[in-house]
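Hi there,

I know you've been waiting on this one. I reran it after we fixed the sequence typo, so this is the corrected version. Both the input and the resulting structure follow.
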Amino acid sequence: MKNCMKLEILALSANESFARNAVAAFALSLNPTVSELSDIKTAVSEAVTNCIVHAYSRREGEQKIVIECISESTEDGGVLHITVTDYGCGIENVTQALTPFFTTLEGEERSGMGFTIMQTFMSDFSVKSERGKGTSVRMSKRFFSEERREKIG
């Protein structure tokens, strides 16, 4: 079975917690473990924070973040696909941005853009960006059924 959700929020720090919890709640139909839910929440938190801190730090006007989720149930578990999109400044060099500790905010105490964290906690990850038009982060998390988890240990 397939299900989908679309959430549009303003790029405000106050909405980061709501976004990660809304996506985690949506994922519950796939029967994730507590650890898997934590992974999802961490990855979504990093993606939303990037939008707030990096995409819109120097822009005026409407600053929205769109989060789209698709859950797919399979015989042995399921997959959650998450896309977090901003319409901010875009990333000039995505390859460089994917390196640990890279930041667009020189001189500020930042530990990078969190892409390494997103890659670590999710099963699949990609970034598409266009300068001046925004960025989309696509992540997927695969879940296994309880029976499958027991078989693989």
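Quick highlight: The two ends are 26 Å apart (CA to CA).

Best,
R. S.
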